[in-house]
Amino acid sequence: MGRKKGSIDITLLIVVIILVLFGLVTLLSTSAYNGQVKFDDPAYYFKKQLFAAALGFAAMYVISRMDYHILERWAFPVYLVSLALSGLVLVVGDSINGSKRWLSFGPLSFQPSEFAKLAVILVLARTISRKSGKKQGILELFRILILVLPIVGLVGSNNLSTAVIILGIAVILVFISNPRYLPFLGLMALGVGFIAVFLGMESYRLERLAIWRDPESYEKGFQTIQGLYAIGSGGLFGNGLGESIQKLGFVPEAQNDMIFSIICEELGLVGAGILILVFLLLIWRFMVSAEHAQDLFGSLISAGVMAHIAIQVILNVAVVTNTIPNTGITLPFVSYGGTSFLFLLSEMGLVLSVSRWQK
């Protein structure tokens, strides 16, 4: 197995800390109005996010000190647990803002779809690494993808956006392990067909396409239009931190998936551009970790986390700028969401663990 060499990737750790601190400051600014109106506490969302960040950093530290090879034997049990939890949501899940995505344990709520992303990365990294060196045609690649279709189906029944992210992670990992274009194009066609079926299963998903094309003609296009107003009014340098007008009820639930529009309004194009550059720096460190990992399992873990963050950032920014239909995808480390924060930092711990074991 080899010996532990050196220390964790300090640059990656610093970038993660910068993103977390920026996210907390931005969330406090963005959510103050909603917190005051709904809970008579302008710091309500900030306090909950801070608690999640503390748990997340603790999980990141513990995981980063582990030998990630231990997780290889636990990949399938973790995946089975994620399947069970995702199925349980359909039976006894709680609905928040009309979406049935949460499980409650006393005062705490938990979103199994966030756990599913981590589980899929681990199980695919294990499966693909054990098939390394064997000839992999389109049928073999399809068999690997079939492994994640149950979780994609369970999550996609009430959370299409997360299902798309999980499917994207799977396709990218399969492509990285066997970069042959013809099988990959076949897998992309299957993925597009799978998404098309899900879009057609519920009328509200087709309605989102119509709203995307002409948001001004639909009442539900209000959020999109107000988000675009926020982006436009920010200009080059923004109106200043805490000076957003659109967060005062104009952009509904601004602290969630539309938070990037408030960042544009308060910090301008320059501030938003710097944030995107920091995300690019984070993705670069994932690539470095994947390239220098001790084995294929570690390399695929780093690549899987990279795919997760990259897909989610791209989709969130695309939604906020109305480049694609609204999908309800949050901005990593910035949008409000305790479960997301906890598992994002856990994934950072995994990559830091991989960085401890270099070739």
Task: Provide an overview of this structure.
The structure is a single chain. With 359 residues, this protein is mostly helical. Helix content is 70%, strand content 4%. It is built from 13 helices and 3 strands. The chain has helices at residues 10-39, 44-65, 70-92, 112-130, 138-146, 149-156, 160-177, 181-201, 203-213, 222-234, 259-292, 296-320, 338-356; strands at residues 94-96, 99-105, 108-110. It has a 3-stranded antiparallel beta sheet with strand order 1-2-3, covered by helices on one side. β1 (94-96) and β2 form a beta hairpin. The longest helix has 34 residues, at 259-292. The model has no long low-confidence stretch (mean pLDDT 87). Belongs to the SEDS family. FtsW subfamily. Its EC number is 2.4.99.28. InterPro entries: FtsW/RodA (IPR001182). It is a multi-pass membrane protein. One of its GO terms (molecular function) is lipid-linked peptidoglycan transporter activity.
